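Researcher: I'd like a structural prediction for the single chain below. Treat it as a standalone chain; there are no partners to consider.
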Amino acid sequence: MSSHMYQVIKAIRKIDSKVLPIYYGNIEDGGNGDIADDHYHRFMEDINLMQELGVNSYRFSISWSRVLPSEFSGSIGIQPFVTINHFDIPQELEDRYGSWLSTHIQEDFGYFAEVCFREFGDRVKLWSTLNEPNLFARFAYRDGTFPPGRCSEPCGNCHTGDSKTEPYRAVHNMILSHAVAVDIYRKKYQVKQGGSIGIVVTSKWYEPLTNSTDDCLAAERALSFELLWILDPILLGAYPQPMVEILGSRLPSFTSEEKKLLQSKLDFIGINHYASNYVEDCMFSSCDLDGYDFDALLLKTGYRNGMLIGDPTAMPTFYVVPRGIENLVLYIMERYKNIPMYITENGYAQESKGTYEELLNDTQRIKFMSSYLKFLHSAMRFMVSSMHGKGADVRGYFCWSLLDNFEWAHGYTVKFGLYHVDFQMLRRTAKLSVNWYKKFLSSEKLQTKTKTLGFEV
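Model: Treating it as a single chain, here is the predicted structure.
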């Protein structure tokens, strides 16, 4: 199972306001995560739910703005998978030097990561440095919908910011901050603690709208500006060529010393995947501004000849396309020589409208999970080429999410949880998908073939 501190934890105001992560405004239902699921006070209740469900791993984040300890015991049989930074930054660092826009953050992030390794490394064997830096940079520094809310026209109307350069500056510092943390872990903690370290990126799968060469190249550009933007520098030492050619001087470059630092690489990649889209070229053709990516010069759409690529969900553009997870995993396998992977987030966006009984009868989530897991299994069995001679090295799968929670700009209007949460009384109630997933996890075939299957919070 998977989660994130601010989306589930409550107790957000129990600390000095100078170190608060700020997540107010631009929320669809006017809500915030100050209370959320109250995981802060109810974490043992939620761990018991996971234990009853039969998961063997739990992915969560440690809040940089307060370094919250989490008590885990090996006796409960659930392995912690810890994200060092999942979007939240101490306000002090934003005020002092602009957080991710400054090279100063690399040293501070390394210091924070080392605190985590030193204090929790005896219990944590799976670390990810950052969660979805590609998504966070776009929302925070291109669109201005995430803190610190920086952007410029035509992407948004913010008080300050530059959408043409700041997302790339921020990601550059995120990549180097990741490298600093990995270097510290490799040199000082990994041998003694016996853990692994990676990074988590998010990516849709993209298919060309037509069979034209232009649309096929546009689909590759879409992956370059989303997935490869993060992974190519870390694993191949340079930004993807389409980004270099299009962005020019707007894309920062790595010094020789920074390239050496990046050579620490990764033990695994975490993949957050929910949906797939079609892509239409806009480099040589005119495009509708709705869905247009002005940097990648392409348009993302769910429609081809008036037909949707997959069933719609409560999240715009999150179409259900199970083949997408197989195609994405095989693409990563080929490009990065079958590096170990975890599916660190995958889940179904359920509408919040409907009766209580209808919300609990989440048959569409069961259909979603069943089909995506089937295609993931296909990727793991795929006999791809003489280079590998075996399928993708997928080590685990984390469902998003254990509980209905605060879904950022969508507030509480979208429900991803296997457990329904009454946000007034904070009561947890199992949905129909709980029984399905419990049976899936306890199946004899799965027990003999799967290493880690869990939930993210």
